[in-house]
């Protein structure tokens, strides 16, 4: 639909379009409002998750792809200098946290839902915190300014996954698409084999990396300069606040949405690197990360929702590039749908392998011997 628009028109469209993240955030209170007095009250809390994983994959096909890249000389410097894009990402933080607190209060106090409606509510809020909250935190923790670093850390603390702030930047980006990275899914590995390793690796490797950083400064791991201690303390304060204010239901809600959010993150990790690998060189090191080591998805609608996260190849090649200037590369491996649609496929391993295994084999045509179905340990 938009593939033939001139680049400048597309940039202008996306400048406004990035605000589309407000739709799922506002969908949470709207679903509560519409459920009041409804004969199908338990159905409305499922609205957001149904739209995200049912409607958006179809809309991605209808809206189409976005091949436009900003001109490196004329447009990229101007786009990177505009504070508008930085403020747009930072604006998500207070709104998401306010939505989270309000949603917890509704969960604990509203009596119009059975457990079915309550489950849908937690799943929908967790989906928003994962899809929007963690996506924005991912953008922010890659940037140097302290404000952005801390804002990203706060969003991760709100979903009890602070280790991602350390492990993703200092671990995943170093070892991506190698056997050393449990956040890079192997060829033939199911989502359900991947997730336990990803959870464990994110937590343990974050502590290991932070301990190594402190050791280089001649400091012990359990030191007040260990940022993980502070971020996990903030998560504990979130949990304490929800518990004291809203009781056991408040605690259940907070922990439930957190699990959904960080599980969604790890499913996206699974999708982003499935079956791709960096070649090992004669010196024992791996080739430099480039645009061939991540799956790209150039569907416009989901890219607007996710701040260009789906232009993941360019992100891994140039991790500090801001979202508004991430590029599409035709020769990067390409996903057949946006992340929402690929997540739906991933939760059904036979469907996932039927779609993705041929794509991996085709991408490595002539090098199939490098593919391995062995699982990480």
How does this structure look, described?
Residues 114-342 form the Fatty acid desaturase domain. One of its GO terms (cellular component) is plasma membrane. Keywords: Cell inner membrane, Cell membrane, Iron, Membrane, Metal-binding, Monooxygenase, Oxidoreductase, Transmembrane, Transmembrane helix. InterPro entries: AlkB/XylM, FA_desaturase_dom. This protein has 377 residues and is mainly alpha-helical. It has one domain. Helix content is 62%, strand content 0%.
Structural class: mainly alpha
Main β-sheet description: none
Apparent shape: globular
Total helical segments: 14
How many domains make up the coordinates?
Answer: 1
Q: State the order of secondary-structure elements, H for helix, E for strand.
A: HHHHHHHHHHHHHH
Strand fraction: under 5%
How helix-rich are the residues, as a percent range? 55-70%
Termini gap: 45 Å
Roughly what is the average pLDDT, rounded to an integer?
Answer: 93
Q: How many distinct beta strands?
A: 0
Rg, alpha carbons: 21 Å
- Unreliable spans are none
């Amino acid at each position: 639909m938009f593939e033939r628009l001139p680049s400048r028109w597309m940039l202008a469209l996306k400048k406004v379009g990035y605000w589309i993240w407000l739709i799922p955030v506002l969908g949470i209170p709207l679903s509560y409002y519409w459920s009041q007095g409804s004969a199908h009250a338990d159905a409305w809390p499922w609205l957001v998750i149904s739209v995200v994983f049912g409607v958006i994959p179809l809309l991605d096909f209808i809206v189409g792809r976005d091949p436009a890249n900003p001109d490196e000389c004329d447009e990229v410097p101007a786009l990177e200098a505009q504070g508008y894009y930085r403020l747009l990402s930072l604006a998500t933080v207070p709104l998401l946290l306010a939505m989270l607190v309000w949603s917890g209060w509704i969960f604990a106090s509203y009596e119009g839902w059975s457990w079915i409606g309550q489950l849908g509510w937690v799943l929908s809020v967790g989906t928003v915190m994962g899809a929007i909250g963690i996506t924005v935190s991912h953008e922010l923790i890659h940037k140097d300014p302290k404000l952005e670093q801390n804002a990203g850390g706060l969003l991760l603390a709100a979903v009890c996954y602070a280790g991602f702030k350390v492990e993703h930047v200092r671990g995943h980006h170093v070892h991506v698409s190698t056997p050393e990275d449990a956040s890079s899914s192997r060829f033939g590995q199911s989502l359900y084999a991947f997730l336990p390793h990803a959870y464990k690796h994110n937590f343990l490797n974050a502590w290991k990396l932070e301990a190594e950083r402190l050791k280089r400064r001649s400091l012990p791991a359990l030191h007040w300069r260990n940022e993980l201690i502070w971020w996990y303390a903030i998560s504990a304060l979130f949990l304490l606040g929800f518990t004291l204010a809203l009781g056991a239901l408040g605690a259940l809600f907070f922990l439930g949405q957190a699990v959904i959010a960080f599980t969604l993150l790890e499913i996206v990790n699974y999708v982003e690197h499935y079956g791709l690998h960096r070649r090992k060189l004669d010196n024992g090191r791996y080739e430099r990360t480039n645009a061939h080591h991540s799956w790209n998805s150039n569907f416009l609608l989901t890219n607007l929702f996710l701040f260009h996260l789906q232009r993941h190849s360019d992100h891994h090649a140039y991790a500090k590039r801001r979202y508004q200037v991430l590029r599409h590369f035709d020769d990067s491996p390409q996903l057949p749908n946006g992340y929402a649609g690929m997540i739906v496929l991933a939760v059904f391993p036979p469907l996932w392998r039927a779609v993705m295994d041929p794509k991996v084999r085709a991408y490595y045509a002539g090098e199939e011997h490098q593919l391995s179905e062995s699982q990480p340990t």
